[in-house]
Design goal:
Blueprint: E1 9-10, H1 15-18, H2 56-65, E2 84-87, E3 94-95, H3 96-106, E4 123-129, H4 136-147, E5 151-155, E6 172-178, E7 199-202, H5 213-216, E8 221-226, E9 235-241, H6 243-260, H7 266-276, E10 282-283, H8 301-304, H9 311-319, E11 333-334, H10 337-344, H11 359-363, E12 373-375, E13 398-402, E14 411-413, E15 423-426
Parallel strand pairs: 1-2, 2-13, 4-5, 4-13, 5-6, 6-7, 10-11
Antiparallel strand pairs: 3-15, 4-15, 8-9, 9-12, 12-14
Helix pairs in contact: 2-6, 3-4, 6-9, 7-9
Length: 427
């Protein structure tokens, strides 16, 4: 990430959550979001649970902006692009007020108490989610950004249920995570909220969730990482899993579209993604995604959006929207011995019980978690790769506002309940 980071801002208003000794300031660097037992006595952190620092923003930053052509780690999708770090979250999540101020600032709009952003973003990636409905404050901010040509991309969430906010807000491009073969991962959310403006792409599909994991899981997405437990430590690389990491692939593609044609407006950017998408895959061995079949399943346009992200075709659209004609395609048909054996095991996950309860009872009092999986350990040597950058949010024309709370094992999934209805969580 050396040389890829623009000056940003820290919008975390609660010093206990910020973990940097103060509230909002001009330093967006991530000091770590780990929680130790002694922290749990603080009102802002009560009930959060003990955890290591997540470095979630660093992972998303690498997918977007990691230096290419250096023989290390992975290649960021924004070849030559830069990252705008906007910190809105810390220990135990993010307040809605901080999120919305961070979004507005990232887009170049005035925010009381903060200087104007000299590098306004056109694309804002939100790799977090909450269990509540979108809400008027979220929707008003998204509408305000869209009116000035800014597109918001959000992770659908990792509860194998309905899309989380803000992915369920109108005007947001919600992103579903796919296995590398093209079917929905065991964890990714889906649903009718994504039919109009959703899209799907790879997010990593770990073996630790669902009955089929040992047969069909993949190795995740390689990206930048940090080995520090509390504060920043040794730079490294890791394999990651989650809609948090599918979302920046879409946001990065939108950034590339703008590099081809800076005159594209918000409606054209969405149209380009949808018209250029590949059709969802088919298979005789996998059922269609539904509340009765929420694990690994076949996406369709009603549940996962227009199709599978195709960056090359999206750029062809961007080059000349009026003349673009999508290629004629038939859905890929998946048939392998592994899928046949998985099918014989029965459904990957049991039906979602919550799908039969009321929305109010399913979401009351929670902001939700978005249980992302993280493969601990190194994918390759990482000395110097992160340089100064332990980031919590980013952009290049891209601002990313995100959070994760993580506990460390050979792989990690955080499925704990949220502790405050004012907090949204990483995805």
């Amino acid at each position: 990430l050396a040389g890829r980071v623009l000056p940003g801002y820290d919008f975390v208003s609660d010093p206990a959550v910020a973990n940097d000794g103060d509230g909002r300031d001009a330093d967006p660097a991530d000091p770590g979001d780990g929680v130790v037992a002694a922290d749990l006595g603080h009102a802002s952190l009560a009930g959060c649970g003990v955890s290591r620092s997540s470095w979630h923003g660093t992972a998303v930053a690498g997918l977007l902006g990691a230096v290419t052509g250096n023989g290390l780690g992975g290649a960021g999708i924004l070849r030559g692009g830069q990252v705008l770090p906007v910190r809105v979250a810390g220990r135990c999540g993010a307040s809605v007020a901080d999120i919305l101020d961070g979004m507005r600032w990232a887009a170049g709009l005035p925010v009381a108490g903060a200087p104007l952003n000299p590098h306004p973003a056109r694309i804002i990636n939100l790799s977090f989610g909450g269990a509540d409905a979108c809400g008027p404050a979220y929707q008003a901010t998204i509408d305000e950004l869209r009116a000035i040509g800014v597109v918001v991309v959000a992770a659908a969430g990792n509860e194998h249920g309905g899309a989380r906010r803000p992915a369920n807000c109108q005007g947001v491009i919600g992103v579903v995570a796919l296995n590398r073969d093209g079917f929905k991962t065991h964890y990714s959310n889906f649903g009718p909220e994504l039919a109009v403006q959703g899209i799907a792409t790879v997010g990593g599909d770990d073996a630790q969730g669902g009955a089929w994991g040992s047969l069909v899981a993949d190795g995740g997405l390689v990206t930048t990482w940090n080995r520090g437990s509390a504060g920043p430590g040794t730079a490294d690389y890791a394999g990651v899993f989650g809609t948090s990491f599918a979302a920046p692939l879409v946001a990065g593609t939108l950034g590339l579209m703008l590099s081809v044609n800076p005159g594209l407006d918000a409606a054209q950017l969405l149209e380009g993604l949808r018209r250029s998408a590949r059709p969802h895959v088919l298979s005789a061995h996998i059922g269609t995604c539904s509340a009765a079949n929420p694990g690994r399943c076949l996406c369709n346009t009603a549940q996962c959006g227009a199709g599978i992200l195709d960056a090359e075709q999206a750029l062809r659209y961007a080059d000349n929207p009026a003349a673009y004609v999508p290629p004629s395609r038939t859905p890929a048909l998946l048939d392998s011995p592994e899928l046949a054996r998985a099918y014989a095991l029965g459904a990957d996950r049991p039906p979602n019980i919550a799908a039969t309860t009321s929305t109010a009872s399913a979401t009351a009092g929670t902001a939700g978690t978005s249980g992302m999986s993280q493969a601990a350990g190194s994918a390759s040597g990482g000395a110097g790769a992160l340089a100064p950058g332990w980031l919590l949010a980013l952009g290049m024309g891209i601002a990313v506002l995100l959070w994760l709370r993580l506990t460390r094992r050979a792989w990690v999934r955080d499925g704990a309940a949220a502790t405050s209805d004012r907090r949204d969580r990483r995805s």
